Amino acid sequence: MAESITYSSQGLKGGKTFFRVQITYTNGEDDEETTIQFPTALGKYLWSLVSFHMVRTDGTAATWAPRLGDTAGFAADSGSEKVSYDSAAVGTAINDYWASPGVPCYLGTDYKLYFVPAFNTGTDNDATVELIFVLE
């Protein structure tokens, strides 16, 4: 399993601060969880998800059910889950946008969220993910 995560600088547009997260999975596993570290210098805990894009590029998984939560090891359908998708064929790219204010995501004092691609099987799944958040 290998994962690469890239954070873009917090850009300003229309007076709002944006934060872009790009994750690349190489040989992603079915139980993999990625920690997303938000900028601590801003001292802000409330961000909203405004865009989510995910494409599978290779691997043996037939389906995925990606989700985003605010606690490490969070369970599907728990109070810690902020965004979730029903199981779908990995050949179907996800490309969702939400109008302002987006999906509210309150961060704990550690300034982290957790992303789970939730491939249904395998240890050879490759995918790219992009999440864009706006500071509320």
Write a concise synopsis of the structure shown.
The protein is mainly β and 136 residues long.
Instruction: List low-pLDDT spans.
Output: none
**Could you describe the largest sheet, including whether it forms a barrel?**
7 strands, antiparallel
Number of helices: 0
Q: What is the H/E order?
A: EEEEEEEEEEEEE
Structure characterization notes:
By secondary structure, the chain is mainly β. The chain has no helices and 13 strands. Strands 1, 2, 3, 5, 10, 11 and 13 form a seven-stranded antiparallel sheet that branches. Strands 4-12-7-8 form a four-stranded antiparallel sheet, with no helix packed on it. A two-stranded antiparallel ribbon has the order 6-9. It is globular and about 45 Å long. 22% of the residues are buried. The model has no long low-confidence stretch (mean pLDDT 89).
SSE arrangement:
Elements lengths: L1 E6 L3 E3 L2 E13 L5 E4 L8 E13 L4 E2 L2 E3 L11 E4 L3 E2 L4 E4 L5 E4 L5 E5 L8 E11 L1
Antiparallel strand pairs: 1-3, 2-3, 3-13, 4-12, 5-10, 5-11, 5-13, 6-9, 7-8, 7-12
